[in-house]
Each structure stands twice: as structure tokens, then as C-alpha cells.
């Protein structure tokens, strides 16, 4: 067997190896090395001066000589007081070496300070907040979420939002300052790190957080896996807290919900985004104004959800509870069995149950003498079943399948859907009530749209091309399609029922010139729901019931089904009329204001029940009802 032969290292190589090892140990090692070298040099020079007797007048001890040499090393001006050629030459050596050492020391400390400042700017120091909201990840929804949580925190004396994301800290802070210029009392704290890394996660102090929001990264091939892994890092960390976390996360595809629930268990609330937007899109296409109702209900500006136990109403009926509040709208009951929306009017309130209300503020939740409905104004019209629908879907994305499945639950048998997209759509059927036809074509092409005879469809849905393009490009294509539809409607003298999906809320104002009936800003709605759930996890139970395919949902129904047209009435009477139909009235829509942004597009949620109003044909009453 051959043996490998190595040359014996030279003394110079040994020294360089040792020196490299010392240099790699950082600033303290460098300072220690300089100090050691300085001490050795000063000691040698002091010994030479002492042994050779270079002091001109009287000889000094080695200690005195060492101190004098040290002063020469630290202060070059000391050399001017020396006498004698030999002493001056020896101290000159010490002084020059001192200049080199001090300059090196200043350079080392300056570089170390700059490196430390840069490290701090990158955001690697541990957060020392308590009871903060922690956001893990970064995507286009983060600005709306931060805005909403800042609004929710206005009643708190001190609050903080901590963001941990893998981006550059300075860039993230600048983006937040631009999009959230006035956070109020809330401090925004940004840290750069990977939410999937346990070490980086500890920087954000998740154990001290009041709630944790996990966002799916934009542009990721499998965004749901990143969200689930982040939840797994939280719940299974060896440093996790003893109690339960309050985690809120977004899941885009229903196929991943089982894995998400397995990881999150009872510590996580999941928002299934594609299904949520599909459901809202379908419902809004069939009843104009619904997207604005959901926005009003989900954001923290204006009215929002509250839970209140009213012992004075124990033993009273649900209808009595509805009429007992002048400035709040009762929508259901929170009992030991969970959330019950729109229960029967005669249901009796039990001890310990809480009312679910819509109110401007918790100070508005107070009982008042019940109003007296005017029974003579209540309409006796009957709602007739809908005829088969003809729907047109312009565009295609990953939500198409869930949207058509949702639409199939609402339409009458014999309804049809025509889907227009450049590429072939996947096999989506069969459906119980629907038949689906695909027409190849680009939805921004005017000739393609004109060939469809769009005025013959009952509903038109413009889907955003969010799967393959950026939000701005997708919204630009949507805007072009909407402009074509508006011009065609004007030319035909027809009224089109158009619902469009937008990705960026800033583009909605541009799109409003197209006079579409509704704009579903998907990112904003998801952001609002995540924010609401982060602030109060019980609201997620309400939203899950509200957006479920079973039970009661929100509808905008013709006002003449409840109140005689043109009658002057109050909302106490509207509540009574809805109750007779097994429904819960929560607001109304004035159709004359449907394009007036300043008046919330005609939507009024939770009106003061004593105020008088007049509902005319075309106006709507907003109710919770079963389909």
C-alpha cells in the first residue's frame, strides 16, 4: 500500500495558519492581538532603554520606563520632551508602532460598529413586544391586513404589529410607510427572516403574540405548503408555549385543507380563499350589491360583529331580541352548540347564550323599549321561484371549477353557462342543474365579445387572469374587457348585469367608469376576513356559518316583498316583515345610489330602527335567509 507523503510545515506556514485562525475569531480577537503585540514591543524597547541606560539625567526603573513608553505609544506628541539621541530613537520606534496600532484599532472598531448597525438594520434582533399581532410572510394582502388591524387597535392604549418575512427589512419598511402612512397608535415592527426556520421564528416572539397571521408567498409554486409548514413550525417547535396559539392562515386549494387542519388542530382557523371568492362571485352575480355588503360587514370601519350576553332577554324570543336594540342588528345566537344564524323567530333565549350583533361600537349595544311595527304596511306579495339562468363567464382561472359548482347550487334546472377563454377548460362536470359550454377566444378581443350576443345573458362574470400574470396586468385585461362591454351595452341600448373580479383595490376606481354592477376585490375581501379572525377568533365561526353552503346566507331581496311600495315606515316594521318570512333583516339598498361611492353604493347596514324610510320598486332589503 502506498503512503501519502506530506512536507513538514515550515515555521512561517505554522505562523500564518495560527494568524488566520486568530483573525477569523472576530473583533475581540483582533483587539487582543494588537494589544499583545503592543505590550511585547513596549516591553522590549523599555528593556533596551533600561539595560543600556539611555535616560540622560537619572536612570529610571523598568516600570517607569514601560509607563513612559506606553504614553509615547498612545500620544505621539510626548516625543517632543525626550532628550538624547538613543532615547529619542527608541521612543520613536514605540511612537510609530503606537500610531499604527491606534489607527488599526480605530479601523477595527469602526468596521465592527458599521457591521453591527447593518445587522440591526437587516432586522435580526429579537422582538421584545407582548400581546402583539404577528404576521408571518409577505404578499399583496399585507397592506390591507395591517390597515385593518391598525383600525381595530385604535381603542388600545398601546399595540404593535410584528412582521417576519424573508425580504429586505429596509424595503419592507419603506413599502409599509408608503401604503400605511398613518398606523395610529400601532407600532409596525419588521424583521427579516424565514418563517419556516425555528431560529428566525424565535426572533418574532411568537409565544408572546396575541394572534398569528400566516400569509402565502406570492409567486410560489405551492403556496399552501409554505403556510402549512409555517403552522407546523409554530405548533411543533420545541420552544412553543404551553397554552394554545391563535393562528389564522389562508389556504388557496380545498385539497390541502385536511393537511392544514391536521397541523393546526384547534389552534388554527383557516380561510379557504378560492372557495370564498367563488361563493361571493356567484352570489353577487345573482344579486347586485352583495360584495359591498360583505365589505361593509368585514372591515373595521363602520359596523362590525360583536357578541353580547343580555341577561334581561333570557326567556324572551329571538324576535323580541331583534326589536330590543335601536342601534344594533341581531343576526343570530352563540350557544353551547355553536353559531346559529337566523334562528326561528319564536326561539327562546337560554341562560348563558350570547347574541351575535352588527353594531358600530360595543357602546351602541344597549337595549331600548321595543318599537311598534306598523302591521298595515307589511306586504303580502309572494316570492316566485327563479327561471333557468343563462350565464356568461369571461376568462378562466383556478377558481372556475369551485365557482361553477357553487352556481349549480343556486340555479334552476335547465340553466346554462358559457365560458370564454383562450385555452381549453378542464372537464368540470357533470352538474345537477347546469350545462357548461366552452367558447375559445380572447376576452379582450372586441369581435369575440360581439359574436357572443352578450345582451341575451342574464348574468356576466368577468374572471381575473390571476394564475399566470401579475395583479396589475390581470386587472388591466379585466378593465379592457369591461370597457368593451360598456360600449357594446351603450350601442345596443341594453342593461347588462356584470360582475367583475379585481385583484388590486386601487384599480376599482378606474374600473368604475365601466359601470359594471359589482366589483369583487378578492385580495381585499380575503384580507378583511383574515384581519377579523385575527382580532376575534369567534367571528370566524360566524363567517364559516355565513359562507357555508347550508344554513342561512345574506340575500338582497325586492323591498316590495316586505313593505308596500312607497310607504313611509321604520326598520322595526321591516324586521317584523322579514321575521314573518323566516328571515332576519339587517339593512337595505337604495337602488338610486347603486353607483354612488359616497353613499356606499346605496348599501345601509344596521340602520337605526326608529328612523323613517321609504322603499320604492327596485330597492332591496338585506336579509339573512335560507335559500
Q: What would you say this structure looks like, in words?
A:
This protein folds into 4 domains: 15-122, Helix Hairpins (Orthogonal Bundle); 133-277, NAD(P)-binding Rossmann-like Domain (Rossmann fold, 3-Layer(aba) Sandwich); 287-379 and 526-626, Alpha-Beta Plaits, CATH 3.30.70.1450; 390-516, NAD(P)-binding Rossmann-like Domain (Rossmann fold, 3-Layer(aba) Sandwich), CATH 3.40.50.720. Helices cover 39% and strands 19% of the residues. Helix 10 (273-286) crosses helix 13 (400-408) and helix 17 (522-535) crosses helix 18. The termini are far apart. The radius of gyration is 36 Å and the shape is elongated. The strands form 5 sheets. The protein has a 6-stranded parallel β-sheet, sandwiched between helices. Strands 13-12-11-14-15-16 form a 6-stranded parallel β-sheet. The protein is α/β, with parallel strands linked by helices and 627 residues long.
